[in-house]
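#dry-run=false #mode=assembly
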Amino acid sequence: MVNLKLPKQRVHIQDARIMRRFLAFLVDLLVLDLFILGGYEAVVSSVSLQQAFSGTSSALTAAAVTIALIALTYFALFEWLLGQTPGMMMLSIETQGVTLWKSFARNIYFLPLFPFPLLWVLEPFHLIWKKTRLLELMTKTRTIERISY
Amino acid sequence: MKKKETSLGAKIGVAIIIIIGLSIVASMAAAVIMLFGGSTSDGNVAIIPVEGILLSGDGYARGVVTSDTLTDDLQVAADDDAIEAVILLINSPGGSAVASDEIAAAVEDMDKPVVAVIREVGASGAYWVASASDHVIANRMSVTGSIGVIGSYLSFGKFLEHWNVTYNQLTAGERKDVGTPFRELTSQEQAYLKKKLDAIHWFFKQAVMENRNLSEEAVDELAEGQWFLGYEALEAGLVDELGSMNEAEAWLNSTHDIQVEPVWYTHEPSIIDVLSSLKVNPLSSLDAGVSVPMAR
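#status=ok
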C-alpha cells in the first residue's frame, strides 16, 4: 500500500450552529412524544378546554409537571451519560463540560415553575445573539460541533 | 464519563435503555394521574344530557351527541353500583337513524330505571331514544313526536349542465351511483330511495309501537312526521307525564323508592376533540329528524 504521507486530519471545534441545534431539539421532542410521553394523550383527552383555560384541572397540572420532569430527565441523562441526545447524535453535535448536576442545571428551563418558563423566551434570544444559551454560560458548558478538514 | 471512547453501538444501547426506562416511568405516572386525577362525585342517579343532533361515531362537540359517547355513559352508569337510576335530559331534534337506534338499544338494555325528560325538543330520533326509557316526561310546550324519516341530498346536475360540464362515471352495477350529487335522480331511483326511507320509517314505528305499547293503527296515525306539543303527546300516549326534573325525581321516588342525588354525566370538548374535530361520518345528514346519509 502506498504511503501518501498525507497531513494528519485536523479537527476544528466550534459552537454548534443554531439550525443544527434547533433541528436536534425538534428530533428530541419527536422522540419524547413518540416513544416516551404517549400515555399522556389519555390524560390530556380527559381534560376539557374549559378546565384547561380556567386551570381547574388537577390532572392537567399533574400531567404538565410530570411531562416537564420527564423531559428534563431525558435531556439531562443523555447529556450526562453520552454527551449527546439522540437529536444531537443525528445532527452531529455534542455537549462539552457536562457533569450530572450541570446537565440538570442547563436544562432547568423545562420546569413549569416561575421563573424558569421565562427562559423559553430568553434562551433563544441569547442563543441568536451570543451563539450560546444563557444556561450554558451559567453552567460553563458548551454545545459544539467538530469540523474535520 | 469518557464520552469520546464510547462506541456508536454502546451509545445506541444506552439510548435505548434510557428511552425504555423513561417510557416506563412516564406510563406509570400517567396511569397514576388517570387513576387519581379524575374528580369523583357522590350521588345515586345519573343525569345524562342528550343535547344536540344525534350522530353515530365518537368524539364530542357542542350541539352534537354521538352514539358512542351516550352508550358509553349509559354503560358507566350501568356498571356503577352507586347509580340506581338514570335520567336522560333530552333537548334534541333527532339525527342519524343508526345513532338513534344504537342509543335506544342501549337505553333498553339498562337494567336500572331510565326516565326521559324532554325539555325544549325531543323529536324524531330523540323521541325514538325517549320512547325506549321506562317513563317519558315532557313539558306541556315541548316539541316531540315527528316520527318520520328525512333523506336529503344536493343535486348539482343542472349547475354542471349550465356550465357545459359532463359528469362521467363508470359503474359496475346499475344503481352503484344512485345519490351522486352530479346528476338528477331518475324516477326509478327516487322510488328506490323512497323504499329505503320507508323501511327505516317502519323500523322507527315498530320501535315506538313496542316501547310505548301502542297499537299499529295508533302508531300509523301518529307517525306521519307531524310533531306534537307536550300536552298533545300526553293525550296521544307518546309521553307518560307532563313536567320536568321534579316530576322525574318524584316518579323515581314513588315507583322505585329512590331519593335522587344527581350525578351529572357531562362532557366538555377536550383539547384533542377540538384539535382533531369530531370523528364522525361527514356524509351523515345534519338535518333535524331521523335522517339517513344519501351519498354513497
